[in-house]
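Recall from the previous chapter that SMILES is a line notation for molecules. Here it describes pyridoxal-5'-phosphate.
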Amino acid sequence: MIPLFDLTRQYERIRGEILNAVDKVISSGRVILGPNVESLEKEIANFVGVGYGVGVASGSDALLIALRAMGVGKGDTVVTTPYTFFATASAPYRLNARVMFIDVEKDTFNMDLDQLEWVLKKEKVKAVIPVHLFGRTMDLEALSFLRERYNVKILEDCAQSIGSEWKFSNGEIKRSGSVGDAAVFSFFPTKNLGTYGDGGMIVTNDEEIAQKSRFLRVHGAKKKYFHDEVGYNSRLDEIHAAILKVKFKYLEKWIEERVRVARSYQKYFEEKKLPVEYPKVEERGYKYHVFHQYVILFEDEITRDRVKEGLSRRGVQTAIYYPLPLHLQVCFKDLGYKEGDFPVAESLSKRSLALPMFPEMKDEEIEEVVNTLELFL
Ligand SMILES: Cc1ncc(COP(=O)(O)O)c(C=O)c1O
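With both inputs in hand, we obtain:
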């Protein structure tokens, strides 16, 4: 069997360190909002290149809390794409904001910034949530430009992109999460930096957003038991922070290993000349793509589904991200969108397939995935 993602192989590499870290937390008796959370917040904020980090219970909560801290509320227009994980759009929806979708680019699967600019020119938009989907960095320079030119708030969804980078025209390299008013990370187990449970973080350069997020995560209480606002119970646990601190040391190495896996897929795809589109590793000299997922495209839905079924019978796990674009979800019916509104997102949903991708993947396994795929094409 070749799994889509294998947490157990990673655990074998770091088992001693993880058990030691967990033991230390439990032995200390301090398990909620303690030194590990504080230190991880500093490490991640530093890594991204911003001033503050606020650990919360999940990436989904991070989106919700950050939006509220940025002042998004009832009736505000929030723009995002329909080709992302549900939480990106459910967060503004839960705050009674008006969720507006725009399509993605067919080559990067990320938000089409020309369409965004067109919308910003004619609509009053409070915030934009761009997603660095599958680990590929959006054009951070263009994002920065739009943020300033149209005075719009940007919340970067970096749930899949921790460690990814963009080179500006002045030569400066910045990480995803560093140009928005705030950014969010998810530490869901399968993420490039994941814990053994749920966790998330908001990062920002804005002290007010950081402070507001800090009290929203503890029921809106600046002072314990005195509530200025109705907030949430959404804290990153000490145990998870301690685990993440261990794993964080390996993040860059694991990203390099993911890129190695992507290069290897590319080599086999090139050799076989199969009728699929696969992501190319662009040798840019910086981490443009951190390959959270390795997603290929088939000609049509029938071929995709047939190959997926065949791979599954041969023990190769795959996944479809995402089978139904968000504008067509039943729960978002009231937003008034219909089939045909976002042709790129709709086409990608029908044609995409994520192949096994994790740092410990062996070259024989990658070759086997491609050989099996060829069989069913
Ligand atoms: C793009 C994106 N946004 C938000 C989330 C939500 O993160 P979490 O699962 O930690 O709530 C995820 C992950 O699942 C994601 O992939």
